[in-house]
Specification:
By secondary structure, this protein is an alpha/beta fold. The protein contains 15 helices and 9 strands.
Length: about 300
């Protein structure tokens, strides 16, 4: 395919190179022309503006710092929309705002142009090796049409839903990631201050139940199917464990901002007569506060896990 690529930074440079290795012809642009030199040496063509990139290609990929840059490249005076004819497509690989993406997509749709949000996960190493997840929101037929190009960028391209859904999936993923890393920082500082060296502590806990199963896979056990009995571990027992944990933290003078919040959640759930349910029943409180009910058929979850 004849494709455009704008934004040749740490992630973008590798993703553009992946497209070239996949046999696609590229028209490239960046605020720094020197960033494009490796791609030009490999046969890419330079364009001075996003508008020129769009005019010369079937579809354009962008990898940019954030919403402001995305909006400028898409809708600016010499932006993508100024150069795109009806039927062309734009995939934004940036971590972007779903609200911004939907607003831009509406402007593109008015001209018959397809806009899809396609944020990626895998970091610089994943971009270099092609081991990237791409979460795409937008038109299904356009996703299928350009799936070979998406497959050249990363090895897991998934259509999540309509425009904006890809951005939501990426932000949900990052929320979970940063929350887990913050909780792990609490856990390990407590363990080290209580007298266990970091390496043997890490070796020990990574072999526990939580360490042996992928984080998101565990959601299929209770949370997603909305099944909290029979319990694997009762909420009453987990509440006892969290009480011991917070007592240890007080003895060691280690602040547990997240840990104390977890205990508060479990206490509220216990006071709501959930003590005999699985400990993850405390997660129902957040659903209630958010006005959301989550329940997925177990057969669908098993099929997904098997795949």
């Amino acid at each position: 395919m004849n494709l455009g690529f704008i934004g040749l930074g740490t992630m973008g440079a590798s993703m553009a190179a992946n497209l070239q290795r996949g046999g696609h012809q590229l028209v490239v642009s960046d605020i720094r022309r020197e960033a494009a030199e490796p791609h030009l040496a490999a046969g890419a063509v330079w364009a001075d503006t996003p508008q020129e990139v769009a005019r010369q290609t079937e579809a354009v990929f962008t990898s940019l710092p954030g919403p402001a840059e995305v909006e400028q490249v898409a809708l600016g005076e010499q932006g993508l929309l100024a150069g795109m004819a009806s039927g062309k497509a734009w995939f934004d690989l940036s971590t972007n705002s779903p609200t911004v993406m939907r607003r831009i997509a509406a402007a593109f749709a008015a001209r018959g142009v397809f806009a899809l949000d396609s944020p990626v996960s895998g970091g610089p190493e994943g971009a270099r090796t092609g081991q990237l997840a791409l979460w795409v929101g937008g038109d299904a037929a356009t996703f299928e049409r350009f799936k070979p190009a998406l497959g050249a960028i990363g090895d897991e391209a998934i259509l999540v839903g309509p425009v904006g859904a890809g951005c939501v999936a990426k932000l949900v993923h990052n929320l979970a990631s940063y929350a887990v890393q913050t909780a792990l920082a609490e856990a390990f500082t407590l363990g080290v201050k209580a007298g266990v060296d970091a390496l043997p502590l890490w070796k020990a806990v990574r072999q526990g139940a939580q360490g042996r199963k992928r984080t998101f896979d565990r959601l299929a056990d209770q949370f997603l199917p909305n099944r909290y009995k029979p319990p694997a571990i009762t909420l009453k027992l987990a509440h006892k464990d969290m009480t011991l944990i917070t007592e240890l933290a007080r003895e060691q003078h280690v602040p547990l901002h997240i840990g104390n919040r977890v205990l508060d959640e479990m206490t509220e759930a216990l006071n709501r007569s959930m003590g005999g349910l699985d400990c993850r029943a405390a997660m129902l409180l957040q659903q209630e506060r958010s006005g959301v009910h989550i329940e997925v058929e177990r057969a669908l979850l098993e099929r997904e896990l098997a795949g």
